[in-house]
Design brief:
The protein has a single domain (38-381), classed as YVTN repeat-like/Quinoprotein amine dehydrogenase (Methylamine Dehydrogenase, Chain H, 7 Propeller). The protein is mostly beta strands. A 7-stranded antiparallel β-sheet has the order 6-5-4-3-2-1-29, with no helix packed on it. Strands 15, 16, 17, 18 and 19 form a 5-stranded antiparallel β-sheet that branches. The longest helix has 23 residues, at 2-24. The chain starts with a helix and ends with a strand. It has helices at residues 2-24, 268-272, and strands at 42-47, 56-62, 67-82, 88-96, 104-112, 118-124, 138-140, 146-152, 156-162, 167-173, 177-182, 189-194, 199-204, 210-215, 232-234, 237-241, 246-251, 258-259, 263-264, 276-277, 283-286, 291-297, 311-316, 321-327, 331-336, 343-348, 354-358, 364-369, 378-381.
Protein backbone atom coordinates (compact mmCIF):
# COMPACT_ATOMS: atom_id res chain seq x y z
CA UNK A 1 0.00 0.00 0.00
CA UNK A 2 2.81 2.40 0.93
CA UNK A 3 4.60 1.67 -2.35
CA UNK A 4 1.42 2.26 -4.35
CA UNK A 5 0.84 5.53 -2.49
CA UNK A 6 4.39 6.69 -3.23
CA UNK A 7 3.99 5.94 -6.96
CA UNK A 8 0.71 7.82 -7.13
CA UNK A 9 2.24 10.75 -5.29
CA UNK A 10 5.16 10.82 -7.72
CA UNK A 11 2.83 10.77 -10.74
CA UNK A 12 0.72 13.53 -9.24
CA UNK A 13 3.80 15.63 -8.63
CA UNK A 14 5.05 15.14 -12.21
CA UNK A 15 1.68 16.06 -13.69
CA UNK A 16 1.45 19.13 -11.45
CA UNK A 17 4.95 20.16 -12.52
CA UNK A 18 4.11 19.77 -16.22
CA UNK A 19 0.91 21.74 -15.72
CA UNK A 20 2.80 24.59 -14.04
CA UNK A 21 5.39 24.62 -16.86
CA UNK A 22 2.68 24.62 -19.51
CA UNK A 23 0.91 27.48 -17.72
CA UNK A 24 4.17 29.43 -17.67
CA UNK A 25 4.83 29.06 -21.43
CA UNK A 26 4.00 32.03 -23.63
CA UNK A 27 1.74 31.22 -26.61
CA UNK A 28 3.38 31.12 -30.04
CA UNK A 29 2.83 34.12 -32.26
CA UNK A 30 2.74 33.31 -35.98
CA UNK A 31 4.51 35.75 -38.26
CA UNK A 32 5.34 35.96 -41.95
CA UNK A 33 8.90 36.88 -42.85
CA UNK A 34 9.43 38.89 -46.00
CA UNK A 35 11.92 37.46 -48.46
CA UNK A 36 15.07 39.37 -49.16
CA UNK A 37 15.29 40.98 -52.62
CA UNK A 38 16.13 38.40 -55.26
CA UNK A 39 19.72 38.02 -56.36
CA UNK A 40 21.19 36.24 -59.37
CA UNK A 41 20.92 32.88 -57.61
CA UNK A 42 17.20 32.69 -56.93
CA UNK A 43 15.92 29.41 -58.43
CA UNK A 44 12.31 28.71 -59.49
CA UNK A 45 11.47 25.00 -59.72
CA UNK A 46 8.28 23.92 -61.51
CA UNK A 47 6.59 20.92 -59.85
CA UNK A 48 3.43 19.74 -61.67
CA UNK A 49 2.77 17.38 -58.74
CA UNK A 50 1.96 14.28 -60.77
CA UNK A 51 0.26 12.59 -57.80
CA UNK A 52 -2.32 15.43 -57.72
CA UNK A 53 -2.18 17.34 -61.00
CA UNK A 54 -4.81 19.90 -60.02
CA UNK A 55 -2.44 21.12 -57.32
CA UNK A 56 0.76 22.07 -59.12
CA UNK A 57 3.26 24.33 -57.45
CA UNK A 58 6.48 26.24 -57.95
CA UNK A 59 9.22 26.05 -55.33
CA UNK A 60 11.35 29.15 -54.81
CA UNK A 61 14.89 28.45 -53.65
CA UNK A 62 17.73 30.63 -52.41
CA UNK A 63 20.43 29.18 -54.66
CA UNK A 64 23.18 31.11 -52.89
CA UNK A 65 22.62 29.40 -49.54
CA UNK A 66 20.62 26.43 -50.91
CA UNK A 67 17.59 26.93 -48.70
CA UNK A 68 13.83 26.94 -49.26
CA UNK A 69 12.14 30.35 -49.54
CA UNK A 70 8.53 29.80 -50.53
CA UNK A 71 5.96 28.29 -52.87
CA UNK A 72 3.52 29.49 -55.53
CA UNK A 73 0.41 27.53 -56.53
CA UNK A 74 0.34 26.84 -60.27
CA UNK A 75 -2.98 24.96 -60.61
CA UNK A 76 -3.46 22.32 -63.30
CA UNK A 77 -0.52 22.01 -65.75
CA UNK A 78 0.63 25.56 -65.10
CA UNK A 79 3.17 27.21 -67.40
CA UNK A 80 5.25 29.95 -65.81
CA UNK A 81 7.68 32.69 -66.80
CA UNK A 82 9.26 35.72 -65.14
CA UNK A 83 8.97 39.24 -66.51
CA UNK A 84 12.20 40.52 -68.12
CA UNK A 85 12.84 42.78 -65.10
CA UNK A 86 12.09 39.84 -62.76
CA UNK A 87 9.47 41.83 -60.83
CA UNK A 88 6.49 39.65 -61.75
CA UNK A 89 5.82 35.96 -62.24
CA UNK A 90 3.19 34.89 -64.79
CA UNK A 91 1.46 31.51 -64.53
CA UNK A 92 -0.85 30.37 -67.35
CA UNK A 93 -2.99 27.64 -65.84
CA UNK A 94 -6.38 25.91 -65.71
CA UNK A 95 -8.98 25.70 -62.95
CA UNK A 96 -12.05 23.46 -63.01
CA UNK A 97 -15.25 24.29 -61.13
CA UNK A 98 -15.33 20.83 -59.50
CA UNK A 99 -11.59 20.54 -58.92
CA UNK A 100 -10.95 17.93 -61.63
CA UNK A 101 -14.06 18.40 -63.79
CA UNK A 102 -16.78 20.93 -64.54
CA UNK A 103 -16.49 24.30 -66.23
CA UNK A 104 -12.93 25.10 -67.27
CA UNK A 105 -11.38 28.52 -66.76
CA UNK A 106 -7.90 29.38 -68.04
CA UNK A 107 -6.11 32.36 -66.57
CA UNK A 108 -2.75 34.03 -66.33
CA UNK A 109 -2.14 34.46 -62.62
CA UNK A 110 0.18 37.37 -61.86
CA UNK A 111 2.39 37.17 -58.78
CA UNK A 112 4.72 39.66 -57.19
CA UNK A 113 8.10 37.99 -57.62
CA UNK A 114 9.45 39.58 -54.44
CA UNK A 115 6.68 38.58 -52.03
CA UNK A 116 5.18 35.74 -54.16
CA UNK A 117 1.76 37.26 -53.41
CA UNK A 118 -0.89 36.83 -56.10
CA UNK A 119 -1.73 40.27 -57.51
CA UNK A 120 -4.37 39.67 -60.17
CA UNK A 121 -5.44 37.45 -63.05
CA UNK A 122 -6.16 37.73 -66.75
CA UNK A 123 -8.74 35.31 -68.16
CA UNK A 124 -7.49 33.71 -71.40
CA UNK A 125 -9.15 31.34 -73.91
CA UNK A 126 -9.47 27.81 -72.42
CA UNK A 127 -6.93 26.37 -74.81
CA UNK A 128 -3.53 26.75 -73.14
CA UNK A 129 -1.33 23.68 -73.64
CA UNK A 130 -1.81 21.45 -70.63
CA UNK A 131 1.70 20.09 -70.79
CA UNK A 132 4.68 19.86 -68.50
CA UNK A 133 6.17 23.25 -67.64
CA UNK A 134 8.65 24.43 -70.26
CA UNK A 135 10.17 27.76 -71.25
CA UNK A 136 9.31 26.97 -74.87
CA UNK A 137 5.55 27.05 -74.09
CA UNK A 138 5.28 30.48 -72.48
CA UNK A 139 7.43 33.57 -72.95
CA UNK A 140 7.25 37.34 -72.73
CA UNK A 141 8.38 39.68 -75.46
CA UNK A 142 11.88 41.03 -74.92
CA UNK A 143 10.51 44.30 -73.47
CA UNK A 144 7.87 42.66 -71.26
CA UNK A 145 4.90 44.26 -73.02
CA UNK A 146 3.43 41.01 -74.40
CA UNK A 147 2.99 37.48 -73.14
CA UNK A 148 2.89 34.53 -75.56
CA UNK A 149 1.09 31.35 -74.39
CA UNK A 150 1.15 28.11 -76.41
CA UNK A 151 -2.25 26.55 -77.10
CA UNK A 152 -3.18 22.98 -78.08
CA UNK A 153 -6.72 21.77 -78.81
CA UNK A 154 -4.89 19.80 -80.42
CA UNK A 155 -4.73 22.48 -83.14
CA UNK A 156 -1.79 24.76 -82.37
CA UNK A 157 -2.07 28.49 -81.79
CA UNK A 158 -0.62 31.16 -79.52
CA UNK A 159 -2.59 33.45 -77.22
CA UNK A 160 -1.11 36.96 -77.18
CA UNK A 161 -1.66 38.87 -73.93
CA UNK A 162 -1.19 42.62 -73.55
CA UNK A 163 0.57 42.81 -70.17
CA UNK A 164 0.47 46.59 -69.92
CA UNK A 165 -3.31 46.75 -70.26
CA UNK A 166 -3.87 43.32 -68.67
CA UNK A 167 -6.01 41.87 -71.45
CA UNK A 168 -5.97 39.28 -74.22
CA UNK A 169 -4.94 40.87 -77.48
CA UNK A 170 -5.38 38.04 -80.01
CA UNK A 171 -5.08 34.35 -80.77
CA UNK A 172 -2.65 33.54 -83.57
CA UNK A 173 -2.89 30.20 -85.45
CA UNK A 174 0.41 28.31 -85.94
CA UNK A 175 -0.71 25.16 -87.80
CA UNK A 176 1.92 22.44 -87.91
CA UNK A 177 4.29 24.42 -85.67
CA UNK A 178 4.99 24.32 -81.94
CA UNK A 179 6.66 26.33 -79.17
CA UNK A 180 7.24 30.05 -78.69
CA UNK A 181 10.59 31.73 -79.32
CA UNK A 182 10.27 35.52 -78.89
CA UNK A 183 12.35 37.85 -81.02
CA UNK A 184 15.25 39.40 -79.07
CA UNK A 185 14.68 42.75 -80.79
CA UNK A 186 11.01 43.12 -81.85
CA UNK A 187 8.28 42.83 -79.19
CA UNK A 188 5.53 41.86 -81.65
CA UNK A 189 7.49 38.99 -83.24
CA UNK A 190 7.92 35.33 -82.30
CA UNK A 191 8.95 32.09 -83.98
CA UNK A 192 7.82 28.48 -83.73
CA UNK A 193 9.43 25.17 -84.73
CA UNK A 194 7.58 23.31 -87.47
CA UNK A 195 7.06 19.64 -88.22
CA UNK A 196 9.01 19.74 -91.48
CA UNK A 197 12.19 20.96 -89.75
CA UNK A 198 11.74 24.65 -90.52
CA UNK A 199 11.13 27.72 -88.36
CA UNK A 200 8.02 29.90 -88.73
CA UNK A 201 8.31 33.58 -87.80
CA UNK A 202 5.25 35.78 -87.24
CA UNK A 203 5.26 39.56 -86.94
CA UNK A 204 2.09 41.10 -85.47
CA UNK A 205 0.45 44.49 -85.86
CA UNK A 206 -0.76 46.65 -82.96
CA UNK A 207 -4.00 44.66 -82.72
CA UNK A 208 -2.12 41.37 -82.46
CA UNK A 209 -3.04 40.28 -85.98
CA UNK A 210 -0.46 38.71 -88.30
CA UNK A 211 1.31 41.35 -90.41
CA UNK A 212 3.95 39.03 -91.88
CA UNK A 213 4.34 35.26 -91.85
CA UNK A 214 7.72 33.93 -93.04
CA UNK A 215 8.91 30.32 -92.94
CA UNK A 216 12.57 29.35 -93.23
CA UNK A 217 13.91 26.44 -95.20
CA UNK A 218 14.13 23.20 -93.18
CA UNK A 219 17.36 23.10 -91.17
CA UNK A 220 16.98 19.58 -89.67
CA UNK A 221 15.42 16.28 -90.66
CA UNK A 222 12.61 15.45 -88.20
CA UNK A 223 12.63 11.80 -89.22
CA UNK A 224 16.33 11.00 -88.86
CA UNK A 225 17.52 13.54 -86.26
CA UNK A 226 14.80 15.72 -84.69
CA UNK A 227 15.61 18.78 -82.62
CA UNK A 228 14.54 19.23 -78.99
CA UNK A 229 12.18 22.25 -78.64
CA UNK A 230 14.01 23.26 -75.43
CA UNK A 231 16.62 25.97 -75.85
CA UNK A 232 18.87 28.50 -74.22
CA UNK A 233 20.38 31.73 -75.45
CA UNK A 234 23.91 32.62 -76.54
CA UNK A 235 23.67 36.38 -76.76
CA UNK A 236 20.83 37.08 -79.20
CA UNK A 237 21.06 33.61 -80.74
CA UNK A 238 18.87 30.67 -79.74
CA UNK A 239 20.77 27.42 -79.15
CA UNK A 240 19.15 24.03 -79.88
CA UNK A 241 20.45 20.46 -79.86
CA UNK A 242 19.21 17.42 -81.77
CA UNK A 243 18.56 13.87 -80.56
CA UNK A 244 21.93 12.75 -81.97
CA UNK A 245 23.90 15.72 -80.68
CA UNK A 246 23.96 18.32 -83.45
CA UNK A 247 24.03 21.94 -82.29
CA UNK A 248 22.14 24.70 -84.10
CA UNK A 249 22.22 28.44 -83.44
CA UNK A 250 19.33 30.53 -84.77
CA UNK A 251 19.01 34.26 -85.27
CA UNK A 252 15.30 35.00 -84.70
CA UNK A 253 15.46 38.78 -84.79
CA UNK A 254 14.39 39.24 -88.43
CA UNK A 255 11.16 38.61 -90.32
CA UNK A 256 12.55 35.19 -91.28
CA UNK A 257 14.64 32.95 -89.06
CA UNK A 258 18.28 32.47 -90.01
CA UNK A 259 19.84 29.24 -88.75
CA UNK A 260 23.57 28.51 -88.87
CA UNK A 261 24.70 25.12 -90.22
CA UNK A 262 24.60 22.48 -87.51
CA UNK A 263 27.69 20.82 -86.05
CA UNK A 264 28.06 17.71 -83.90
CA UNK A 265 29.21 17.77 -80.29
CA UNK A 266 29.66 13.98 -80.47
CA UNK A 267 32.96 12.69 -81.86
CA UNK A 268 33.41 9.41 -83.73
CA UNK A 269 34.45 7.39 -80.66
CA UNK A 270 31.60 8.83 -78.59
CA UNK A 271 29.09 8.12 -81.35
CA UNK A 272 30.25 4.50 -81.43
CA UNK A 273 29.54 4.28 -77.67
CA UNK A 274 26.08 5.70 -78.29
CA UNK A 275 26.48 9.03 -76.49
CA UNK A 276 23.41 11.23 -77.01
CA UNK A 277 21.67 14.18 -75.35
CA UNK A 278 18.77 13.36 -73.06
CA UNK A 279 16.48 14.77 -70.40
CA UNK A 280 13.92 17.55 -70.30
CA UNK A 281 15.48 21.01 -70.00
CA UNK A 282 18.67 19.34 -71.14
CA UNK A 283 20.90 22.25 -72.07
CA UNK A 284 22.10 25.54 -70.63
CA UNK A 285 24.51 28.24 -71.73
CA UNK A 286 27.07 30.28 -69.85
CA UNK A 287 26.77 33.39 -71.97
CA UNK A 288 29.78 35.38 -70.77
CA UNK A 289 32.15 32.45 -71.38
CA UNK A 290 30.39 31.19 -74.52
CA UNK A 291 29.92 27.71 -73.10
CA UNK A 292 27.19 25.14 -73.64
CA UNK A 293 26.27 22.52 -71.04
CA UNK A 294 24.43 19.43 -72.31
CA UNK A 295 23.02 16.42 -70.42
CA UNK A 296 24.41 13.27 -72.08
CA UNK A 297 23.94 9.49 -71.74
CA UNK A 298 25.70 6.57 -73.42
CA UNK A 299 24.13 3.53 -75.10
CA UNK A 300 21.55 5.82 -76.63
CA UNK A 301 18.79 4.37 -78.78
CA UNK A 302 15.37 5.18 -80.15
CA UNK A 303 13.34 6.54 -77.23
CA UNK A 304 16.27 7.29 -74.92
CA UNK A 305 16.04 11.06 -75.52
CA UNK A 306 14.34 11.50 -72.12
CA UNK A 307 17.00 9.59 -70.19
CA UNK A 308 18.61 11.55 -67.34
CA UNK A 309 22.25 12.60 -67.61
CA UNK A 310 25.13 10.23 -67.02
CA UNK A 311 27.48 13.13 -67.71
CA UNK A 312 27.28 16.86 -68.33
CA UNK A 313 29.41 17.86 -71.31
CA UNK A 314 30.90 21.34 -71.40
CA UNK A 315 31.24 22.66 -74.95
CA UNK A 316 33.02 25.78 -76.19
CA UNK A 317 30.57 27.34 -78.64
CA UNK A 318 33.26 29.20 -80.58
CA UNK A 319 35.56 26.24 -81.27
CA UNK A 320 32.81 23.56 -81.14
CA UNK A 321 35.07 21.51 -78.84
CA UNK A 322 34.27 19.68 -75.62
CA UNK A 323 36.39 21.14 -72.82
CA UNK A 324 35.13 19.18 -69.78
CA UNK A 325 32.96 16.27 -68.64
CA UNK A 326 31.10 16.55 -65.33
CA UNK A 327 29.18 13.91 -63.36
CA UNK A 328 25.59 13.84 -64.57
CA UNK A 329 23.82 13.46 -61.19
CA UNK A 330 20.85 11.94 -63.10
CA UNK A 331 19.95 15.47 -64.19
CA UNK A 332 16.85 16.03 -66.33
CA UNK A 333 16.86 19.84 -66.19
CA UNK A 334 19.48 22.53 -65.81
CA UNK A 335 19.96 26.28 -65.88
CA UNK A 336 22.76 28.77 -65.28
CA UNK A 337 22.81 31.96 -63.27
CA UNK A 338 24.07 35.20 -64.76
CA UNK A 339 26.56 37.66 -63.36
CA UNK A 340 30.24 37.69 -62.44
CA UNK A 341 30.22 34.36 -60.59
CA UNK A 342 27.79 32.11 -62.49
CA UNK A 343 26.56 28.76 -61.27
CA UNK A 344 25.12 25.74 -63.02
CA UNK A 345 22.08 24.23 -61.31
CA UNK A 346 20.98 20.64 -62.00
CA UNK A 347 17.74 18.90 -61.06
CA UNK A 348 18.30 15.25 -60.05
CA UNK A 349 15.39 13.14 -61.32
CA UNK A 350 16.11 10.28 -58.91
CA UNK A 351 16.02 12.08 -55.57
CA UNK A 352 14.56 15.50 -56.48
CA UNK A 353 17.85 17.07 -55.37
CA UNK A 354 19.10 20.45 -56.53
CA UNK A 355 22.84 20.41 -57.31
CA UNK A 356 24.91 23.55 -57.81
CA UNK A 357 28.28 23.94 -59.54
CA UNK A 358 30.44 27.02 -59.32
CA UNK A 359 31.53 27.78 -62.85
CA UNK A 360 34.92 29.07 -63.85
CA UNK A 361 37.92 27.79 -65.73
CA UNK A 362 37.20 24.46 -64.04
CA UNK A 363 33.61 23.88 -62.77
CA UNK A 364 33.51 22.82 -59.11
CA UNK A 365 30.68 21.19 -57.17
CA UNK A 366 29.29 23.76 -54.72
CA UNK A 367 26.46 22.14 -52.79
CA UNK A 368 23.51 19.75 -52.95
CA UNK A 369 20.03 20.49 -51.57
CA UNK A 370 18.03 17.29 -51.02
CA UNK A 371 14.45 16.28 -51.77
CA UNK A 372 12.64 19.30 -53.20
CA UNK A 373 8.92 18.91 -53.82
CA UNK A 374 6.97 15.99 -55.21
CA UNK A 375 7.79 15.73 -58.93
CA UNK A 376 9.97 18.71 -59.88
CA UNK A 377 10.73 18.79 -63.59
CA UNK A 378 11.96 22.20 -64.70
CA UNK A 379 13.94 25.10 -63.28
CA UNK A 380 14.62 28.72 -64.10
CA UNK A 381 16.72 31.38 -62.42
CA UNK A 382 16.12 34.95 -61.30
Amino acid sequence: MKKSFRVKSLLFGLCAGFAMQAHALEPDVLTVTKMAPADAYRVYIADPNFSSLVDGRMHVIDGQNMRYLGMVSTGFSGLSVLSPDRSELYVATTYYARLNHGERTDVVDIHDATTLARKEEIVIPPRHAQGTASRSLIQTSFDGSLLYVQNATPATSVTVVDLRNRKVLAEVPTPGCWAVYPSPTVASRFSAMCGNGSMLTLTLDEAGQVATRKQSAPFFDPDSDPVFPMYDRNGDKFVFVSFHGKVYQADLSGEMASVEPGWSLVGAADAKAGWRPGGYQLLATERAAGRLYVAMHDKGEEGSHKNPAKEIWVIDLASHKRIARLPGHNAVSMATSRGDKPRLYLLDATNNDLIAYDLGVKPKLFKRMPAIGNTPIHLELQ
